[in-house]
Specification:
The protein is mainly β. Helix content is about 0%, strand content about 50%. It is built from no helices and 16 strands. Strands 3, 4, 6, 7 and 8 form a five-stranded antiparallel sheet that branches. The N and C termini lie far apart (about 110 Å).
């Protein structure tokens, strides 16, 4: 009687401590993990836009790898979820998934502010705008004599600021304002907001 035998598939340890980090100014996410397997053939990288399902394999990383750069098909300012599995081809062993980790992308483009409004009160012009950039460093405010088109920088304000008071106008003067976001020490600038026109009131 012939007796059939099979070599059992041995489980292999799962990767652990998966972390995902964004890169400012890029649609890119960097993955790192701990390799707990001594003889894997590859690591399989899975991605989803939710942590509750919908994961699909997007790539493989070589044996002994502990990092992976994902810069393919990512959208701006979007959170992505990942897990990693180790695979050994000699016996088709597949580890359990690593922990799920996530991060939101940055963006090459700096999103411009919009809905700029200017209110000319007595001796002050008050500006307000909508902040559309999640990771700006600040905003540059520019001013011009109304209709001249000759804008010059008036001031910078910090990230997440959405209002500014200009106390340097002349009584009865009419002005145009525009605002743009910037990011980084050597700034990347957004396009400008709409232009807001205002006439300064006098006491």
């Amino acid at each position: 009687t012939n007796i059939a035998t099979a070599t059992p598939i041995c489980n292999i340890p799962a990767p652990s401590s998966l972390m995902v980090s964004p890169v400012v100014g890029q649609e890119r996410l960097d993955l790192t993990w701990v390799d707990n397997t001594g003889d894997e053939t590859e690591f399989r990288i899975f991605r989803s836009i939710t942590d509750t399902g919908g994961f699909a394999q997007i790539d493989i990383a070589a044996a002994d790898a502990t990092t992976y750069i994902d810069n393919s098909g990512l959208s701006c300012y979007t959170e992505y979820f990942y897990y990693v599995q180790a695979h050994r081809s000699s016996d088709a062993a597949l580890s359990d998934p690593s922990n799920i980790a996530s991060a939101a992308t940055s963006c090459t483009e700096v999103y411009a502010p919009d809905t700029l409004a200017a209110d000319g009160s007595v001796d002050v012009v008050n500006l307000s705008w909508n902040d559309n950039a999640p990771d700006e460093t600040g905003f540059e405010i520019q001013r011009a004599i109304s209709g001249s088109g000759s804008f010059s920088s008036l001031d910078n304000v910090s990230a997440n600021i959405t209002a500014y008071s200009d106390l340097t106008t002349d009584c009865g003067g009419e002005y145009d304002y525009r605002v743009r976001a910037f990011r980084g020490g050597t700034p990347t600038y957004s396009t400008f907001s709409n232009i807001a026109n205002v006439k300064q009131l006098c006491t």
